[in-house]
Design a protein that fits this description.
Elements (H helix, E strand, L loop, with lengths): L2 H6 L5 H5 L19 H5 L19
Amino acid sequence: MSGFTDMLAHMDERAQYDSINMDLVNTEGPDTPTLQNRTARNTRVGLFLCPSVGGVAHLND
């Protein structure tokens, strides 16, 4: 899980944070996603999107 995951609970995204099964933190990775966290993983959080990129771009590194 990304550090951004922990931020959700403090950014008016508590429902999104609560939907994540934290018991899977050590078993889930980019190459081994779980079905249980699919909805949370595929939900875009507007605060993490760069407005200057536009479109469906994800968080810039």
